[in-house]
Amino acid sequence: MMPLDGRPILTAAAMRAAEEQIIATGTSVSALMERVGAAVAAQVRRLAGDQEVLILCGPGNNGGDGYVAARLLAAAGQRVRVAATGAPRSDAAIAARHAWGRDVEALGAAAPAPVLVDALFGTGLSRGLGTDVAGALARLAAAAALTIAVDLPSGAATDDGRLLSPVPDYDLTLALGALKPSHLLQPAAARSQRVIVLDIAVPVASEASVLARPRLSAPVVDAHKYSRGMVAVVAGAMPGASVLAATAAARGGAGYVLLLGGASDRVPHAIVRRRFDAAAIADKRIGALLVGPGLGRDERARERLEAALATDRPLVIDGDALRLLTPQKLAARKGPMILTPHAGEFDALFGADAGSKIDRARHAAAASGATIVFKGPDTVITAPDGGVVVALAASSWLSTAGTGDVLAGLVAARLAVNGSNAMPDPLAAAAEAVWLHGEAARRAGPAFIADDLARHLPEAIAACL
Length: 465
Description:
By secondary structure, this protein is of the alpha/beta class. The protein folds into two domains: about 10-210, Rossmann fold (3-Layer(aba) Sandwich), CATH 3.40.50.10260; about 230-460, UDP-N-acetylmuramoyl-L-alanine:D-glutamate ligase, CATH 3.40.1190. The chain is built from 15 helices and 17 strands. A ten-stranded mixed β-sheet has the order 8-17-16-15-14-13-12-9-10-11, with helices on both faces. Strands 3-2-1-4-5-6-7 form a seven-stranded parallel β-sheet, sandwiched between helices. Helix 2 packs across helix 3 (about 60-75), helix 3 packs parallel to helix 4 (about 90-100) and helix 12 crosses helix 13. The chain is elongated, with a radius of gyration of 25 Å. The protein starts with 11 loop residues before the first helix and ends with a helix. About 55% of the residues are buried. Its cofactor is K(+); Mg(2+). It catalyses: (6R)-NADHX = (6S)-NADHX; (6S)-NADHX + ADP = AMP + phosphate + NADH + H(+); (6S)-NADPHX + ADP = AMP + phosphate + NADPH + H(+); (6R)-NADPHX = (6S)-NADPHX. Homotetramer. GO terms for molecular function: ADP-dependent NAD(P)H-hydrate dehydratase activity; ATP binding; metal ion binding; NAD(P)HX epimerase activity.
């Protein structure tokens, strides 16, 4: 199966437009349904073996896909049954139901089967399932040994990761034509253990894509510590956070790391310590200036943040610094910026609303002029020009203190490294850092602490060379 790395992500409206474009060129809805049903049937047959399959069909075209898959599976000798919520409504689904030509059981009365295929409702669902339908789905899913959702698990919204009604856990989701936001955004993404994209011969394109493994290069033969990228980390009230960030920057590929104003003695010898002052952060060799980890929110913190904002250095802003800013203040600054907020910091800076995490991050990037790394179990990276990268779920062991500081230092390192021989590309730097952070967590195994995570960064980089 093709990996998900780099694949486009389409909203319900964008996928519908792509399908309509194909239909406008002469492909009928029924012909497209045949393609989908055949692709679904091939996957189900590969996984089901000789086990009986129960396909649940809804009233729309997703249900029609299920009827086509059932017919093709039966023709191939698979034991297959169909249960439905009622009669199909679209012309293509009605034709598919007629072509099935066998009994259709009532959903509420259907007996379980070892393999369950959910073709009830796919892309575009706008409201939750009725209690009776949701209950029947839960009952049949709980009794199955293998559960497969067609396009999206029924009950999940397409574009924002919401669960509109209770949704069972699925072993596999077969995304039709392209990934949708809810294949990656939580909590909907957690309902599928695995997602496969089925090729249904519909060309798709999007400004949003899945985070891919970066392709990194070793330092050139005549590299030196300054040419490899210099990072300066502004320390503050909680020195441990800035030490973690500086350590991550050093292990993340930067050739020279400065820790400015830190009081901790537990600093790796390779990290240079200096007083914080205007001259230190004005050094033109600095490829990325990081402010925020452990900064605090007192007057000294505000002064250090203001000094950092006043430089023309590429800037990474994290932690406490995000609580001391406004989008307007950020937009007024010249020069590349990357912000790395978690949900609470994002809400404090840009306001809380119920929109899609992708849309919220896009609006924040446009309003601030900064690249946004909206952290979480579904990290979204957006650029001011509208580009979006969404990370696959990383290790849940990342939910421990200090891992955000490690990410901030890693973002600064990649920004400095990428800008050492060219204009910095904040979106690329942020994407590299998020991928490496997730890979380091995978290599660290269970129950790691942030210090452990930083030590695995060289291994993660080695995987990309």
